[in-house]
Amino acid sequence: xxxxxGRTVVVATVLCGFCSVLVxxxxxxxxPKQDINKELDFKKNIxxxxxxxxxxxxxxxxxxxxxxxxxxxxxGDIAQGVDVSKFNQDKADKxxxxxxxxxxxxxxxxxxxxxxxxxxxxxxxxxxxxQIVLHVYGKGLWSTMKGFLALxxxxxxxxxxxxYSHGETPGLGGEVDNPKWIGQWPGKKMFDAENDFKPMTRVxxxxxxxxxxxxxxxxxGLSGATLTSVGVEHTFNFWMSDMGYGKFLTxxxxxxxx
Length: 258
Ligand SMILES: Cc1cc2nc3c(=O)[nH]c(=O)nc-3n(C[C@H](O)[C@H](O)[C@H](O)COP(=O)(O)O)c2cc1C
Hints:
The structure is a single chain. 32% of the residues lie in helices and 24% in strands. With 258 residues, the chain is an alpha+beta fold. Strands 2-1-5-6-7-8 form a six-stranded antiparallel β-sheet. It has a two-stranded antiparallel sheet with strand order 3-4. A two-stranded antiparallel ribbon has the order 9-10. It is globular and about 90 Å long. Flavin mononucleotide is lined by residues 141-142, 168-169, 172-173, 223-228.
């Protein structure tokens, strides 16, 4: 190797080493800040679904009225022996002790498996449950769409809903995060109280006819995005069923969980 080629290799190696140290250092320094921002964003989405997020809202302050609990979906009870402050939903979603594979008939939302332990957020007012915020997710056309659904203390009436993550096409399925479409959800009912609290959500191609007696369960379909719309309907009907939060919401309605 000539002297010049040797020097080039040395300079390139030193430069590469220096740059990797710089990048690794930046990652280490920024990681705690990124984690804090991620946590704040998560809380913001929960507050938003419950209608508690306005311009200027202090997220940490507003979140003081939210009490996280961990629910065992198989019984509908608050999970025993689980420390909610240490519970990590992402880890639970991979823990074979909690994960249940869903067979084809059960897997309405196209998620293949789900943890029987789910973190739920109770919005409390003067010590009593005012709203229940539930994490819901299911397959759209291109992606798993993830959101938070806030229900009134009656365990049936929607207070608010938002998708915080999806990969549907902007302008088509991506309209699931359009505030106008989202604005239809408050006031809708999840269950038919006259019919054993059967999950009833329907996303209507062509739009909801408000004079239809079933309109309380219906949401406008997204034009040019029937497959995403069907995904939304299936997501709700899965999570409101006994494979989802059905048993827990029955206990809320019966006053067994306060
Ligand atoms: C580039 C491209 C992106 C699309 N994105 C979506 C989508 O995000 N959601 C969806 O349901 N359909 C999407 N579609 C349309 C579907 O392929 C399908 O035609 C549609 O769901 C049928 O809905 P319609 O009966 O309302 O037209 C897309 C189509 C194309 C060509």
